[in-house]
Design a protein that fits this description.
By secondary structure, the protein is an alpha+beta fold. The protein has a single domain, classed as Trna Endonuclease, Chain: A, domain 1.
Length: 202
């Protein structure tokens, strides 16, 4: 039996552990997380990038041994991820990002982000890696790539106690249009705005 802490079920990365909310991506019936994973599979298959979702750490609490040669996990808990959801390599650059989803129309709740994630993204930037967040507003059917630095700056104002207005996200982020292949072409934004734009310097 795996027990899910409340904070895990509230953490939205496209699907909830307890129930999966389907979001229509170009009428393909994909959840936000599925669209990201589908895109990563597309990038991998076409030799464009190697990016994977990190497994969620699990703490094993109880193990039964019905036979001496066989162990059975009967109780375990999902733990908070220590860093971000996704990482990999694109054109020789380290890619590291988090994905969040909300049904709100005007803001992204900052409670979805944890201090250790913000610190991790800052460390990635210090090492000249590429770090960002993918933010999906399911009610509006809008998705944005927000570079890590504007997220870090906003978080540091009050340590993430309030929500980030969508106007701030639109000002510092880049909208990603859904549909086609890949489902969520976020690397197009990385290429145009982070590798070749003002957010990244060689």
């Amino acid at each position: 039996m795996v027990n899910y802490p409340h904070q895990v079920s509230r953490k939205v990365t496209g699907t909830s552990i307890r129930s999966k909310k389907e979001v229509n991506f170009a009428n393909r019936g994909m959840s936000f997380e599925t669209a990201i994973n589908d895109s990563n599979n597309y990038y991998l298959a076409h030799g464009k990038a190697v990016i994977h979702k990190k497994p969620t750490p699990v703490q094993i609490v109880k193990v039964d041994y019905p036979k001496r040669s066989r162990a059975k996990i009967v109780e375990a808990y999902f733990r908070h991820a220590s860093t971000t959801d996704y990482s990999g390599v694109y054109k020789g650059f380290y890619i590291d990002f988090e994905a969040k989803e909300t049904r709100q129309k005007t803001a992204m709740p900052m409670k979805n982000f944890h201090a250790h994630q913000i610190e991790h993204m800052a460390q990635v930037l210090q090492q000249r890696g590429i770090s960002f967040v993918l933010l999906h507003f399911s009610t509006l059917k809008e998705t944005y790539l927000l570079p890590a630095q504007p997220l870090i700056d906003f978080y540091q104002i009050d340590k993430g106690s309030k929500s980030m207005p969508i106007d701030y996200i639109r000002q510092y982020g880049f909208e990603i249009k859904m549909g086609g292949y890949p489902s969520l072409p976020y690397l197009d934004v990385v290429e145009a705005k982070l590798l070749g734009g003002d957010n990244f310097e060689q």
